[in-house]
Specification:
The chain is built from 35 helices and 9 strands. By secondary structure, the protein is α+β, with helices and mostly antiparallel strands. Strands 1, 2, 3, 4, 5, 6 and 7 form a 7-stranded mixed beta sheet that branches. A two-stranded antiparallel ribbon has the order 8-9.
């Protein structure tokens, strides 16, 4: 009994993260009361206590030997210069709370200020963006394989390429949130429009010049970039340098110009997948700069550098185009042979030499959280509106298809994912607009936004059936389906983002002690290592004690306030076990954890799902609407189930702890949502205002001949005439009228006083519009072959 009491006391100490001296004190008192220790035993105990409690003694007898052992065995992972730049680029944010096993929604989450659009930003969204959408259609863009000259000019004149450029240089100076909402609306009209405008505002010369350029470069380029007088592109990717951008082969060699005596750079490069490359006038080029003659110093390899190259320079070839799965946005290879530029053309001038990788990761630490998540969200909102509307119109076996359970399951997931993506977008961009650079979370956003959008579109294609697979002007989702692999691939392939970046970068950057330990070992600072290591040990023990207690109680005793407290409690429970499993994996696998990509990916799944749940709960509390409760339930249950799967797979693949797998299975974090939740979500979407709220900021053309506008009108008309169509069905079933054309049947209903004349007119219009909506495109053979 006494031993059990001691164990419980030690667990309580660990749960509350007491310092190490508390353990020695408790064990000492316990031994004094319950055991009759002799002088020798007490001497040993006091010596051990002194060694561990007095830091100079601990360093001499414990820490130094531990450091020597770690260095001898190579147990601490090394950080390369490129990894170091990536770690320094972003800031720690909410993800650091997950690594500490502590998530306080009152402070960590809800204190993040909400970004509101300015009047200017809202006006741009309501006017210029709508006008641009009205100037073209997705089908027209695909038929012409380009924008019209009028569209291009409008984009330039209205500064769509200058959304992120400060006003002092002639740009719009928009917030990240405004930038996102512009892309979100544009993609609901055409992905080509969104991609074309997204890229110059996400990654490229404008942002790099604004942040790292010389004053002369800012004055020379930014105003021209803002109004489209200069069209930018960013040349990074190469045949042998994709996700591993550090392996680029394009090079610049410093040489002395014999005519002027000036030091210049000779470039040779081959780039591919460059958006806007074919039409760009200003190329932001990544290359490795070399100084074989030591013109700038004693270093021959100066590292990755970014330069600005005019497309008219001799040796530049922009005459080719790629065809990315038939999506006609401008994407092309770039070639350069002996292209001469000046040192002044390096972004940042002399100070920018060798800083290219650092500039890139800083830019990506923000851009990944804005561009592609905005495309995915806008596309998901559009798909939800299309699928929900169409499924209400389309009937099979005398029933609207949205009432079939299989279809309900798909639509409910589309709606829940859309709500979740919107929540995660808002939380992430609020942080960015408040000055954060959440590199780890932005990797999460890039991966999950594009992957969830892939599921949304695939499920939408299933629901729409035949009308989704016949390409033509009437097909609203086919081109989004074609374009999906592009989003999955760019800005870091999703496989590598999941397997290497989310947890791999997050572990070192966001864990409270690992980076400190690595740096201490790197600089042989034993005292710093001592502090970090024993704090790390304390964190590991605390997470063990909390995990045990939360496992027994299922986290039900955790204090959380506000809505959905049960989910908040489970977030803390999962975070504690995530911290524990992370430290166990480090102990079991050591530095090889970096190479265990699948283990890393599963940890990344837990980390990212924790973020998605957190963002969803925050969104609900910021905009409390009871009708969204079912969506929050769906998202949280879905994500906790994903976390449970990752938890089981981690334990089963960590060797020494695989025996604990049954314990993880019998006490799961969560399970999938029940079918009845699907039905409630889908039924709510039949409310017009409800659907509009969930798909807010989707562009709806005011012209009646637009396909999407017709879909909206068809749903409204058929709802207005629901009573009349019910009467028609009952009359046919009862034999009151005979089956015939719609005109004849309506005449029979009117003649029998079952409906009025004006009702018949409205029902005919509703029926005809419905038939038009469920029709698909067909082409004359000549027309089809010409289009091909």
């Amino acid at each position: 009994m006494e031993t059990l009491i001691l164990i419980l006391i030690l667990l309580v100490l660990g749960f509350n993260a007491f310092p190490i001296y508390a353990y020695f004190a408790i064990v000492g008192v316990y031994s004094l009361v319950f055991f009759d220790f002799g002088a020798l035993a007490w001497t040993i105990y006091l010596v051990i206590g002194a060694i561990f409690l007095i830091q100079p003694l601990r360093i001499k007898f414990v820490t130094q030997k531990l450091v020597d052992f770690i260095n001898k065995k190579g147990l601490m992972p090394k950080i390369s210069a490129t990894e170091e730049a990536a770690l320094q680029a972003g800031t720690n944010w909410i993800e650091s709370s997950y690594f500490k096993g502590e998530v306080n929604f009152s402070t960590d989450v809800h204190e993040e200020k909400i970004t509101e659009l300015t009047d200017e930003e809202q006006a741009f969204l309501d006017n210029e963006v709508n006008e641009l959408c009205e100037m073209t259609t997705d089908w027209e863009i695909f038929q012409k394989r380009d924008f019209t000259p009028e569209v291009w000019q409008f984009i330039k004149d209205k500064k769509f390429f200058g959304m992120i450029i400060p006003k002092e240089y002639g740009g719009l100076g928009f917030s990240a949130t405004a930038h996102s909402k512009v892309i979100e609306k544009l993609v609901s009209r055409s992905q080509v429009l969104a991609i074309t405008i997204m890229v110059p505002n996400s990654l490229g010369p404008a942002e790099l010049i604004e942040k790292h350029g010389t004053n002369e470069q800012k004055e020379k380029y930014l105003s021209d970039l803002a109004i489209g007088r200069e069209v930018p592109c960013f040349g990074l990717t190469e045949p042998n340098a994709g996700s591993d951008a550090t392996s680029i082969k394009s090079n610049g060699v410093l040489f002395k110009d014999e005519k002027t005596g000036k030091t210049r750079i000779r470039l040779n490069f081959e780039k591919r997948y460059i958006t806007l490359g074919n039409i760009a006038t200003l190329i932001g080029l990544a290359f490795v700069l070399k100084d074989p003659d030591n013109l700038l110093g004693d270093q021959k390899d100066l590292g990755i550098t970014f330069g600005l190259v005019n497309h008219k320079k001799k040796g530049v070839d922009t005459s080719y185009r790629h065809d990315p799965l038939g999506i006609p946005f401008v994407n092309s290879p770039l070639y350069g042979k002996d292209v001469i530029i000046d040192i002044e053309d390096i972004i940042g001038g002399l100070n920018g030499i060798g800083k290219g990788w650092q500039m890139l990761v800083e830019s990506l630490s923000i851009g990944r959280g804005i561009s592609l998540p905005s495309v995915s969200l806008g596309g998901s909102k559009f798909a939800l509106n299309v699928v929900s509307s169409y499924s209400q119109l389309r009937e099979q076996f005398g029933l609207s298809i949205n009432h079939f359970e299989g279809v309900e399951e798909k639509i409910a997931k589309i709606a829940a994912f859309t709500y979740m993506l919107n929540a995660a977008r808002n939380y992430t961009l609020d942080a960015i607009d408040n000055g954060q650079k959440p590199g780890v979370v932005n990797s999460v956003m890039k991966y999950h936004a594009t992957e969830k959008f892939r599921e949304v579109i695939n499920d939408s294609m299933d629901v729409l059936g035949g009308s989704a697979i016949i390409r033509g002007e009437n097909n609203l989702l086919a081109h989004a389906y074609f374009a999906l692999p592009i989003s999955i691939t760019v800005e870091g392939a999703n496989i590598l983002t999941r397997n290497l970046m989310q947890f791999g970068q997050g572990l070192i950057k966001s864990h409270p002690y690992i980076y400190k330990e690595i740096n201490a070992l790197r600089y042989n600072n034993v005292e710093s290592f001592d502090k970090a290591f024993f704090a790390h040990v304390n964190l590991g023990y605390t997470s063990l004690c909390k995990s045990l207690f939360y496992y027994i109680t299922r986290g039900s005793t955790i204090c959380q306030k506000g809505e959905f407290t049960r989910y908040k409690q489970k977030v803390t429970w999962v975070s504690s076990e995530f911290t524990l499993l992370t430290n166990v994996a480090l102990a079991v696998v050591g530095p090889a954890l970096k190479k265990r990509e699948n283990i890393s990916a599963r940890f990344g799944d837990i980390l990212s799902n924790l973020y998605l749940i957190t963002a969803t709960l925050r969104e609900f509390e910021n905009n409390q609407k009871d009708e969204n409760r079912d969506l929050v339930d769906y998202v949280c249950q879905y994500c906790f189930n994903d976390i449970q799967i990752a938890r089981e797979e981690i334990i089963s693949n960590l060797g020494g702890i695989s025996a604990l797998l049954p314990l993880a299975k019998i006490n799961p974090f969560g399970t999938k949502a029940e079918d009845k939740l699907n039905a409630r979500i889908v039924n709510s979407l039949s409310n017009e205002e409800r659907l509009e709220e969930l798909t807010k900021n989707v562009f709806v053309d005011s012209r009646e001949n637009d396909r999407f506008s017709k879909l909206q009108k068809a749903v409204k008309l058929n709802k207005q005439n629901a009573k009349g169509f019910k009467t028609l069905k009952e009359a046919l079933k009862n034999g009151t009228i005979e089956f015939d054309s719609i005109d004849v049947m309506l005449e029979q209903l009117v003649s029998k006083d079952l409906i009025k004349e004006d009702e018949a007119i409205s029902m005919k219009e509703a029926h005809e519009l419905k038939q038009e909506i469920i029709s698909v495109d067909a082409f004359k053979i000549k027309q089809y072959r010409a289009a091909r």
